[in-house]
């Protein structure tokens, strides 16, 4: 065991094992012996050639790295617990997230499907919104700094971040950031802004869709040259996300998508094409009549129930067979779908707003569902380990290990972690 592995920081944080190394130091698995919990500890190494003044700058940057995310209390940004100076160098203590990075997922599985990338993009936009409102620019958003913990997407590593109230610590002539993901104006020497973070988001989502960033070349100089001189290549796998990606990768920051417009375009892409409203036609009225007949005979057998669901999915408007309130406020609820007793998880839509995300955790996350169900649709899962998110608990009926869960309030989000092992 090395000396570092025997080290206890600030009399409470014990180093357990090395997780990985980077250009600036090592990340350790640690244990907080005071609170008895696992932590991640980032050990930052100072280059030996640094002068005393440069060491002071390095320490200030380290404290800034800890303070930046510590100010940002949100599900999508890694939580920082503490910063310690030990053995002449700084250590940052953070929450332990046992999950692969987006970079690792791309390397293992190749390009991701567009719906999964849309989910990642929406979470990162939320994280950037929180940071930017606090006056903090990340400056190094890239796939290796994005962790995927089931449905949770976490932005990490604020080492290059700065706030509007702090002095810049970048020395003249030093390039900061990752060339394949840096915005053109920052590569040209201009100050990083929230708009440059949005460029980096676009490059990150492009890499998730295509398997590589848009301007990556064989070396740093070639990458920067392509960034400065070549047109942004159109993504081939983006589908409905193409307007989001191309808008974020607009080289002129004044024409680049703003945060609000990026959110709007992304949510439009996630919702899919919407048909315009139209007045009921004779065919539509006939479908309503059939639906009413189906509701009357639903108690006669499962065939009638299937008929109702099929008619409702074709209907251009709300179906009269959907769960509705009586004058006294009571509701009509269908019987549990088959397979509930033997399934790990069953979800059935009470309304057309039943949006779900279901995945199998592990080194390579497997996404089983990322969709919005139509009223009456059901999904059944047999896997022993699952992570599930119900985005509107009032819109879905949920059974976990055969037990029905109580319905939530409109707009309430519920998370389920299942483990039958």
UniProtKB/TrEMBL annotation:
A Pfam short name: Pkinase
Q: What GO molecular functions are on record for this protein?
A: ATP binding; protein serine/threonine kinase activity
Q: Say which domain of life the source belongs to.
A: Bacteria
Going by the UniProt record, its keywords in alphabetical order are: ATP-binding, Kinase, Membrane, Nucleotide-binding, Serine/threonine-protein kinase, Transferase, Transmembrane, Transmembrane helix
Biased composition of type Low complexity is found at 320-339
Residue limits of the Protein kinase domain? 13-270
* Ranges for region Disordered: 315-339
Locate the residues binding ATP. 42
Name of the molecule in the record: non-specific serine/threonine protein kinase
């Amino acid at each position: 065991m090395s000396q570092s592995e025997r080290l206890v920081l600030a009399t409470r944080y014990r180093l357990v094992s090395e997780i990985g190394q980077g250009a600036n130091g090592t990340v350790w698995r640690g244990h907080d012996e005071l609170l008895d919990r696992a932590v991640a500890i980032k050990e930052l190494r100072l280059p030996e050639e640094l002068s005393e003044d440069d060491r002071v700058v390095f320490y200030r940057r380290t404290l800034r790295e800890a303070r930046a995310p510590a100010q940002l209390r949100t599900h999508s940004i890694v939580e920082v617990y503490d910063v310690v100076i030990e053995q002449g160098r700084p250590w940052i203590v953070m929450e332990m997230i046992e999950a692969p990075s987006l970079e690792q997922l791309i390397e293992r599985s190749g390009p991701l499907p567009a719906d999964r990338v849309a989910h990642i993009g929406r979470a990162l936009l939320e994280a950037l919104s929180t940071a930017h409102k606090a006056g903090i620019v990340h400056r190094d958003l890239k796939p290796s700094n994005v962790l995927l913990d089931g449905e949770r997407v976490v932005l990490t590593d604020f080492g290059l971040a700065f706030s509007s109230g702090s002095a810049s610590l970048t020395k003249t002539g030093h390039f900061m950031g990752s060339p394949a993901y840096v915005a053109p104006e920052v590569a040209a020497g201009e100050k990083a802004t929230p708009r440059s973070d949005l460029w980096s988001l676009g490059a990150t989502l492009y890499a998730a869709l295509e398997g590589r960033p848009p301007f990556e070349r064989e070396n740093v100089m070639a990458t920067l040259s392509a960034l400065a001189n070549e047109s942004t290549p159109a993504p081939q796998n983006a589908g409905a996300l193409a307007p989001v990606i191309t808008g974020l990768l607009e080289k002129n920051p004044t024409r680049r998508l703003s945060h609000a417009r990026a959110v709007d375009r992304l949510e439009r892409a996630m919702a899919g094409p919407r048909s315009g409203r139209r007045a009921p036609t004779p065919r539509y009225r006939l479908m309503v009549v059939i639906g009413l007949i189906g509701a009357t005979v639903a108690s006669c057998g499962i065939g009638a129930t299937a008929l109702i669901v099929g008619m409702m999915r074709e209907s251009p408007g709300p179906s009269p067979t959907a769960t509705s309130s009586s004058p006294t406020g009571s509701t009509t609820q269908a019987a549990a779908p088959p397979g509930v007793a033997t399934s790990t998880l069953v979800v059935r839509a009470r309304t057309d707003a039943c949006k779900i995300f279901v995945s199998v955790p592990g080194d390579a996350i497997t996404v089983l569902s990322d969709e919005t169900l139509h009223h009456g649709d059901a999904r059944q899962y047999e896997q022993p380990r699952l992570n599930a998110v119900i985005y509107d608990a009032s819109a879905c009926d949920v059974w976990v290990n055969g037990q029905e869960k109580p319905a939530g309030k409109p707009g309430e989000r519920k998370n389920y972690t299942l483990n039958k092992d």
